[in-house]
């Protein structure tokens, strides 16, 4: 998100109307629904997290303990169990 100077981009009439509501304050204008991006869409974060979760699941299936996975990935045991359950559920859905 970047800041733009209102006097540079808005017509004077619109600027005057906005000043009637909020004079000199900051205002956030959300994106149009069709222009919104999902989390991780602009970076590799989503793909990297998905790959990490698959790695955790596969290690767990091969016998690595929740405690060891927790220490390896710096995640709580509870979070490791949530990841394993989510990937297991996803794997079952793709098999059907």
Outline the fold blueprint.
Layout: H1 6-9, H2 12-21, H3 45-61, H4 66-73, H5 77-95
Helix pairs in contact: 3-5, 4-5
Summarize this structure as a short list of keywords or feature phrases.
96 residues, mainly alpha, Homeodomain-like_sf, c-mor_Regulatory_Protein, Mor_transcription_activator, Mor transcription activator domain-containing protein
Q: Structural class per helix/strand content?
A: mainly alpha
Main sheet properties:
none
The overall number of domains is: 2
Task: Calculate the terminal CA-CA distance, rounded to whole Å.
Answer: 41 Å
% residues in beta strands: under 5%
The total count of helices amounts to 5
- Helical proportion? 55-70%
The succession of helices and strands, N to C, reads HHHHH
Query: Count the strands?
Result: 0
Shape: elongated
Protein name: Mor transcription activator domain-containing protein
InterPro entries: c-mor_Regulatory_Protein (IPR052411), Homeodomain-like_sf (IPR009057), Mor_transcription_activator (IPR014875), YraL-like (IPR049739)
Domain Mor transcription activator: 9-92
């Amino acid at each position: 998100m970047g800041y733009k100077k209102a006097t540079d981009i808005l017509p004077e009439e619109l600027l005057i109307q906005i000043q009637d509501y909020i004079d000199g304050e900051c205002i956030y204008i959300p994106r149009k629904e069709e222009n919104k991006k999902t989390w991780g869409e602009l970076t590799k974060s989503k793909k990297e997290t998905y790959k990490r979760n698959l790695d955790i699941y596969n290690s767990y299936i091969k016998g690595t303990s929740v405690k060891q996975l927790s220490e390896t990935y710096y995640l709580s045991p509870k979070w490791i169990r949530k990841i394993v359950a989510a990937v297991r559920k996803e794997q079952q859905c793709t098999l059907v």
